[in-house]
Automatic annotation (TrEMBL):
Residues 116-401 form the Protein kinase domain. Pfam families: Pkinase (PF00069). SUPFAM superfamilies: Protein kinase-like (PK-like). It comes from Talaromyces proteolyticus. It comes from the Eukaryota. This is Serine/threonine-protein kinase ATG1. GO terms for cellular component: autophagosome; cytosol; phagophore assembly site membrane. It is an enzyme of class 2 (transferase). GO terms for molecular function: ATP binding; protein serine/threonine kinase activity. Its EC number is 2.7.11.1. Gene3D superfamilies: Transferase(Phosphotransferase) domain 1.
């Protein structure tokens, strides 16, 4: 693995702070910053959610009167503002789902009973649809309710039931075993109350995703301070995954969710691979193309050649994640895709990148990043040769990334 060069007199490249109209990111006088994010796409269903919240408040108030409690002690805990903030996910005490065992006789535990009613769709992909549910006050949340993100797995075209079950089972097994502040928490897998399809229940992030945040600025890109905050959190999440023996293989802004206060969480493990089991020391190399085109690394576009050894088509999936993270950073800073395909004869921008790197050892979009240490790190991550890309741990130890300030919520993992 390549080692990132040490740079003296490290600069922290600062793009002018966001204009006053952008109230979602605020630099503070002490050099820190704060985020106040919300996903504009999700406001259509808030009226229903607020109505449910009001019902929960009324019920809690009635309960408190029965128990002789003072309303003044209960109602401050039920502020509507708290509803808009994602609550720490709680794995609800429940009977095993149909995948792990049958509920006790005479009981039929439904998704609605456990995680509430569907309110609106918040995402769609090739593997399924994601909707938000609201569960009113309960033993776990006696003074309010809780929101969940529920991903319903869809059957792909020409996919057999066996392959469907294998796919959703693999994703759930990987995602439910991961526990890190920068990785989405997967809580459960059970059947949908309607058609019997399988649903994966996850914590809900009300801040949207990095893609939506970047596009909300109209193509200008994020300031260096904000982009660096998200980037370092992404690297921390990836380091945890790689040390656990998992490669994500579909890192892109859409799969990087945000809480309302700016904590980044890696989501969607539909393409994830187990590259090393706990008792193994060596990482398994992989092959094949997967992910989203602008973020797919060049080694995945292989052309089968006669007489070429089969081993030459394999690569380290961790290096794939490193490449994708580097492209994501360029996305955040430029506000657009730097290329569509990492293939010379298919994409003019990528062809220019390869040519300029070979002839001049630099590329204008990266040179526009302020700070030598920053530029060195991104160049290393976008090394065309996967064997010489740095590991995520090396990147986190680099002069630039180690000096990046992460917001307080990003450090603590507190979703508030």
């Amino acid at each position: 693995m390549a080692r990132i060069k040490t740079a003296v007199n490290v600069e922290i490249g600062l793009k002018p702070y966001s204009t006053p109209k952008d109230t979602k990111f605020t630099p503070l006088h002490d050099g820190s910053h704060s985020h106040r994010l919300y996903d504009g796409r999700r406001h259509d269903g808030l009226l229903d959610l607020l109505q449910d919240k009001l019902k929960a408040m009324k019920e809690a108030s009635r309960t408190s009167k029965k128990e002789g409690e003072d309303d003044n002690e209960i109602l401050p805990l039920l502020r509507l503002e708290s509803f808009l903030m994602p609550q720490p996910p709680v794995l609800l005490a429940r009977h095993p789902s149909s995948l792990s065992g049958s509920p006790p006789k005479g009981e039929n535990v439904s998704l609605k009973q456990l995680y509430g009613t569907y309110k609106e769709q918040i995402g769609r992909g090739s593997s399924g649809v994601v909707r938000v549910t609201f569960r009113p006050h309960s033993i776990d949340h006696p003074t309010g309710g809780q929101l969940f993100a529920v991903k319903k797995f869809s059957h792909r075209e020409k996919e057999t039931t066996k392959k469907y079950m294998k796919r959703l089972g693999a994703e759930f097994c990987i995602s439910s075993s991961l526990h890190h502040i920068n990785v989405i928490q997967t809580l459960d897998l059970m059947k949908d109350d309607g058609d019997g399809g399988f649903c994966q229940i996850m914590e809900y992030c009300s801040g949207g995703d990095v893609y939506t945040r970047v596009r909300s600025l109209g193509g200008d890109g994020l300031s260096a301070v904000e982009a660096n905050c998200y980037f370092k959190q992404l690297l921390r999440g990836l380091e945890y995954l790689h040390k656990t023996g998992v490669a994500h293989r579909d890192i892109k802004p859409d799969n990087l969710l945000l809480t309302r206060r700016g904590c980044l969480k890696i989501a969607d493990f539909g393409n994830a691979e187990c590259i090393r089991l706990p008792w193994e020391k060596q990482v398994k190399l992989t092959t094949g193309l997967c992910g989203s085109f602008p973020y797919i690394s060049p080694e995945q576009y292989t052309v089968i050649e006669y007489g070429k050894p089969k081993s030459s088509y394999y690569f380290d999936a961790r290096a794939v994640d490193v490449w994708a993270a580097g492209v994501v950073y360029m996305d955040m800073r430029t506000g657009k895709h730097v290329w569509r395909y990492a293939v010379v004869d298919r994409d003019a921008q990528y062809e220019e990148f390869v040519r300029d790197m070979e002839e001049y050892g630099c590329w204008d979009p990266i040179e526009m990043l302020q700070g030598a240490a920053c530029r060195q790190t991104i160049y290393a991550m976008l090394d065309i040769n996967w064997k010489t890309r740095p590991s995520v741990s090396d990147i986190l130890k680099s002069d630039w990334v180690s000096s990046v300030h992460v917001c307080a919520v990003g450090e603590s993992g507190d979703s508030m």
